[in-house]
């Protein structure tokens, strides 16, 4: 149901002719398009997708992206495991996901075609690079006959384009070997797609000039290939139609926008949090996919006073961050699931020391090394409980790529206000996916400034004024943050149980009981916003509750159901520890509560245990986000209603 | 005593005494433990530095010696097993106005925390690391440690340990340490002189302190402590002096000397005679190459500790990580200007939606 013809009908627009850069050719108006670029890991598909996305963002469409690449840097060429793809969904209205099924597949080789064709519905357009469809290349991925000739692609609109030959031909004026010239075929493909969808081109040309500033010849070759691709679309008869997708003007509130990925938004959120707190930012980190981009990004902003420390291992990464926090910095460590496992003991220490610390977990498929470049939400229980002893840690989970910015500020507020380590649970889908973001003014950002302890906070019976490192704020239960260098407040803290107030070592049974319960009460008492329910008719009997990156697919699925007359309520959790105070009441208000998660039901388990509600889990662990259509069907099935035919 | 190494640390306003550095906590080591002597030496030495007490921080891991920070009236953190160098690295690199000391033991530093130790040393973070080596696990009640002699009979090795021990000085030299010294808990004067040299050093300093565990490994260093035996067993290193030890010879200096073997290039111990006295190796702690220091560290017999060099084996100047990190921040501001959050968030590629 997602072919382009259907979408024209849905948009209520008639095809019309003329306009754009394609004089004399038909131009059709669409309300949304999903394009997937696929090729070898070395074909530059991520770059191609990124550029198409930037063009689309600057044009003003709403958009959502899904990069999908192997963990190997250069898997063997031409093989199925080596296929890298980038899907971009853009529209003239607000959209929530990178889309279920591509309307256009660009397949740079037989492996890319084979690996992706199952996702592409009949009726879609497929652009293949015929130069790569030699007998050996096809045999390598198990094609017994040529799929371009044997009828297996009947029902698709296949454009057979010798992308490599055309690129080499276009670059014959350059002193490049055939092999080197052929490398620009991704820019040729980008030019062709840019023509098909009337994308602005200045940005890509400027980008190429900057990227290859040291090698102007290569910059010009790529720009030439890019333009040749555009011109090819305009002149060849194979491409008779081009498409317009109008800017999504009504989808966005007024403001200045940019496209942003989750990891970039999260990095900016950390820098903004430190600025708003007026504290230096200290990142202790060890490289791990898909979190390393945050380390890379922060290391570029030392002029904000940001210190980035690439440690010898995951444990040293968080250790250094905790040491810096003791010294009065906003300490952060970034990692993925396997790194969280290694950091567990230090997180427990931070719980005991009651110092602010951010632990950023960009979740990926597990267990163990699992799927380094794929997404999953299976670290929720690790974040909640993955430590020895009673060691509660607040958990914040962003809902969309752009929301990673706000979530970082929220997590920092909790850490600084309550003097506690905080988990920020993003995932591979949010990290690498992107969407338009309304750029906030710094004045809109929260004030995160803290007060360090400056003097005694307790009077002994004999009248002596002393400093007690574990004397708490009666409202937040936070202990004072007295940083080294403050005269008179010299004190010792550690991982051994300490006496309430004085902080001295104490093994007393009643003191331990008091401290364990107090640490728990501090986290339970953290102020988090109430969960809001979206239930337009107010009649829904089913609530769909999600957390983290499933926000987009769940919202898209709920919209589908509502469009076809169904009534479902939706709510989303950004705070997983503590839960919003009204959550129990919300859950109790519905006959059924469905919880879709990219794990085997971790949030469902927490909710069942806490609220005694008979949650219905909808789970998926493919390493990929939910698709809206399948999720809608799963919701309808779980409701006991009729599932869509599909 | 304020040296360049401590130039960024604020000074004490009033004269300090040993008492100023004693915390109000009751010291809970076993009676007779060597840790008491080290604590007293450190507390006694600190006033000499003349630093503001609030700008001194002790960070420790886990083990008997790691209780040390509780007894110092400074800032302190008793952290988790093996991680003190990592935590102290975060503190030292973000707060150059602090004098940061790490207290660790042979199990803490060389077993569970071995990775952090070697990386702190190679980075040359401005940390003073006191490694209490008692060649045993004390707090867990007597298992062999990574410095225990091979064949050690302990609770966990009733038939003898199988591992070859680490020589902490050799290890530190191999890890690119810019300052490496060894001393003994019972020799207060020597211990203090080594602490002084370490405090004056800019960058990482590793001080191995042979420390007696009178409960689980009593007498482990007796060969170095018994006056008579020590004459033959201990090689005292003095910078710029010929390396001589043993009973006094005819010239009044030690009758034994350390020589370079002309064939192998290694160093060895031999009787000093009138003929060879001019060829006794002269100790240069500031030698650019760590080769000779390493060779000296290998003279000690790992079982008997016979021919153990003590003193400063290596002390060289090289860039300090904390300074380099701070320099990069200053450079970035010089090149790009102080960070502008609004400009950062805006980026180069925006579009406007009108209201």
UniProtKB/TrEMBL annotation, chain A:
Q: Which CDD domains match?
A: TPP_PYR_PFOR_IOR-alpha_like
- Domain Pyruvate/ketoisovalerate oxidoreductase catalytic, residue spans: 42-229
Domain Pyruvate flavodoxin/ferredoxin oxidoreductase pyrimidine binding: where?
284-493
Under what name is this protein listed?
2-oxoglutarate ferredoxin oxidoreductase subunit alpha
Pfam families, per the entry? PFOR_II (PF17147), POR (PF01558), POR_N (PF01855)
Q: Does the keyword Oxidoreductase apply?
A: yes
Q: Which GO terms describe its molecular function?
A: magnesium ion binding; oxidoreductase activity, acting on the aldehyde or oxo group of donors
Query: Taxonomic lineage per UniProt?
Result: Bacteria, Bacillati, Actinomycetota, Actinomycetes, Kitasatosporales
* Domain Pyruvate:ferredoxin oxidoreductase core per the UniProt entry, residue ranges: 540-604
- InterPro entries cross-referenced by the UniProt entry: 2-oxoacid/accept_OxRdtase_asu (IPR022367), PFOR_II (IPR033412), Pyruvate:ferred/Flavod_OxRd (IPR050722), Pyrv/ketoisovalerate_OxRed_cat (IPR019752), Pyrv_Fd/Flavodoxin_OxRdtase_N (IPR002880), Pyrv_flavodox_OxRed_cen (IPR002869), THDP-binding (IPR029061), Transketo_C/PFOR_II (IPR009014)
* The entry's keywords: Oxidoreductase
Q: Which GO terms describe its biological process?
A: response to oxidative stress
Disulfide bond found in the keyword field: no
UniProtKB/TrEMBL annotation, chain B:
- Annotated Gene Ontology MF terms? magnesium ion binding; oxidoreductase activity, acting on the aldehyde or oxo group of donors, iron-sulfur protein as acceptor; thiamine pyrophosphate binding
Q: Which organism is it from?
A: Streptomyces harbinensis
Q: What is this protein called?
A: 2-oxoglutarate ferredoxin oxidoreductase subunit beta
Q: Which domain of life is it from?
A: Bacteria
Where in the numbering of this chain does the Thiamine pyrophosphate enzyme TPP-binding domain appear? 62-209
Enumerate the Gene3D superfamilies for this protein.
Answer: 3.40.50.970
* Keywords (A to Z) from UniProt: Oxidoreductase
For this UniProt entry, which residues form the secretion signal?
Answer: none
Q: Example GO biological process term? A: cellular respiration
């Amino acid at each position: 149901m997602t072919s382009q013809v259907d979408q024209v009908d849905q948009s209520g627009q008639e095809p019309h002719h003329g306009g754009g850069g394609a004089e004399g050719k038909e131009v059709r108006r669409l309300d949304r398009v999903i394009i997937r670029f696929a090729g070898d890991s070395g074909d530059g598909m991520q770059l191609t997708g990124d550029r198409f996305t930037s063009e689309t963002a600057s044009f003003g469409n709403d958009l959502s992206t899904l990069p999908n690449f192997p963990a190997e840097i250069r898997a063997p060429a031409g093989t199925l495991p080596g296929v890298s793809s980038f899907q971009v969904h853009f529209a003239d209205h607000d959209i929530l996901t990178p889309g279920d099924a591509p309307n256009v597949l660009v397949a740079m080789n037989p492996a890319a075609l084979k690996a992706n064709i199952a996702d592409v519905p009949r009726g879609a357009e497929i652009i293949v690079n015929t130069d790569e469809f030699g007998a050996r290349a096809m045999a390598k991925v198990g094609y017994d006959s040529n799929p371009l000739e044997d009828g297996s692609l009947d029902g698709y609109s296949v454009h057979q384009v010798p992308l490599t030959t055309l690129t080499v031909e276009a670059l014959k004026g350059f002193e490049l070997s055939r092999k080197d010239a052929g490398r620009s075929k991704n820019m040729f493909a980008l030019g062709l797609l840019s023509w098909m969808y009337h994308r602005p081109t200045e940005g890509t040309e400027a980008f190429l000039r900057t990227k290859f500033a040291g090698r102007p010849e290569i910059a010009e070759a790529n720009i030439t290939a890019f333009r040749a691709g555009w011109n090819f679309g305009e002149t060849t008869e194979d491409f008779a139609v081009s498409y317009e997708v109008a800017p999504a003007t009504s989808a966005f509130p007024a403001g200045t926008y940019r496209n942003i990925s989750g990891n970039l938004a999260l990095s900016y959120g950390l820098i903004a949090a430190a600025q708003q707190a007026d504290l230096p930012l200290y990142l202790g980190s060890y490289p791990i996919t898909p979190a390393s981009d945050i380390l890379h990004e922060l290391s570029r902003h030392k002029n904000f006073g940001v210190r980035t420390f690439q440690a010898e291992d995951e444990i040293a990464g968080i250790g250094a961050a905790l040491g810096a926090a003791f010294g009065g910095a906003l300490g952060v460590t970034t990692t993925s699931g396997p790194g969280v496992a290694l950091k567990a003991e230090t997180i427990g220490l931070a719980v005991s020391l009651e110092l602010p610390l951010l632990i950023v977990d960009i979740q990926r498929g597990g267990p163990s090394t699992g799927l380094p470049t794929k997404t999953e939400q299976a670290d929720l229980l690790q974040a909640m409980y993955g430590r020895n002893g009673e060691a509660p840690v607040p958990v914040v989970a962003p809902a969309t790529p752009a929301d990673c910015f706000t979530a970082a500020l929220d997590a920092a507020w909790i850490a600084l206000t309550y003097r506690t380590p905080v988990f920020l649970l993003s995932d591979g889908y949010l990290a690498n996916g992107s969407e338009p973001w309304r750029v906030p003014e710094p004045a809109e950002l929260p004030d995160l400034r803290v007060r360090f302890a400056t003097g005694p906070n307790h009077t002994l019976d004999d009248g002596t004024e002393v400093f007690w490192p574990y004397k708490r704020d009666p409202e937040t239960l936070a202990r004072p943050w007295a940083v080294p260098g403050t005269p008179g407040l010299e004190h010792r803290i550690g991982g051994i149980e300490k006496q309430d107030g004085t902080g001295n070592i104490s093994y007393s049974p009643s003191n331990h009981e008091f401290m364990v319960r107090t640490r728990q009460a501090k986290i339970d008492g953290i102020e988090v916003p109430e969960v809001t329910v979206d239930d337009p008719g107010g009649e829904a009997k089913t609530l769909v509750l999600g957390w983290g990156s499933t926000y987009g697919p769940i919202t898209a699925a709920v919209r589908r159901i509502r469009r076809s007359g169904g009534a479902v309520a939706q709510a989303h959790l950004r705070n997983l520890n503590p839960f919003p105070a009204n959550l129990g009441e919300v859950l109790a208000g519905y006959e059924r509560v469905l919880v879709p998660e990219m794990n085997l039901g971790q949030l469902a388990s927490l909710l069942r245990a806490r609220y005694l509600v008979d949650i219905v889990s909808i789970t998926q662990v493919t390493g990929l986000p939910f698709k809206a259509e399948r999720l809608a069907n799963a919701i309808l099935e779980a409701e006991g209603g009729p599932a869509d035919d599909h | 005593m304020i040296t360049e190494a401590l130039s960024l640390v604020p000074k004490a306003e009033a004269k300090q005494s040993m008492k100023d550095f004693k915390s109000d906590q009751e010291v809970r080591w076993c009676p007779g433990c060597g840790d008491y002597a080290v604590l007293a030496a450190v507390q006694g030495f600190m006033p000499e530095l003349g630093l503001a007490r609030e700008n001194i921080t002790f960070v420790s891991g886990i083990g008997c010696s790691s209780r040390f920070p509780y007894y110092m009236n400074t800032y302190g953190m008793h952290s988790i097993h093996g991680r003190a160098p990592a935590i102290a690295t975060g503190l030292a690199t973000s707060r150059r106005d602090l004098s940061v000391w790490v207290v660790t033991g042979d199990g803490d530093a060389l077993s569970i925390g071995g990775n952090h130790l070697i990386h702190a040393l190679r980075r040359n973070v401005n940390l003073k690391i006191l490694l209490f080596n008692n060649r045993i696990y004390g707090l867990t009640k007597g298992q062999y440690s990574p410095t225990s002699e091979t064949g050690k009979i302990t609770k966990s090795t009733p038939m003898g340990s199988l591992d070859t021990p680490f020589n902490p000085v050799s290890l530190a030299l191999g890890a690119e340490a810019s300052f490496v010294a060894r001393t003994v808990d019972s020799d207060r004067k020597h211990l203090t002189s080594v602490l002084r040299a370490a405090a004056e050093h800019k960058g990482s300093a590793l001080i191995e302190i042979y420390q007696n565990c009178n409960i689980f490994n009593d007498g482990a260093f007796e060969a170095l402590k018994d006056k008579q035996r020590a004459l033959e067993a201990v090689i005292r290193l003095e910078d710029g002096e010929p390396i001589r030890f043993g009973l006094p010879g005819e010239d009044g200096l030690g009758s034994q000397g350390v020589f370079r073997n002309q064939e192998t290039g290694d160093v060895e111990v031999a009787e000093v005679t009138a003929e060879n006295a001019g060829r006794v190796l002269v100790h240069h702690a500031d030698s650019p190459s760590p080769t000779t220091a390493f060779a000296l560290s290998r003279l000690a017999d790992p079982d008997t500790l016979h021919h153990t060099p003590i003193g400063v084996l290596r002390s060289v100047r090289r860039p300090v990580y904390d300074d380099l990190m701070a320099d990069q921040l200053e450079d970035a501001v010089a090149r790009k200007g102080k960070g502008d959050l609004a400009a950062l968030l805006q980026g180069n590629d925006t579009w406007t939606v009108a209201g």
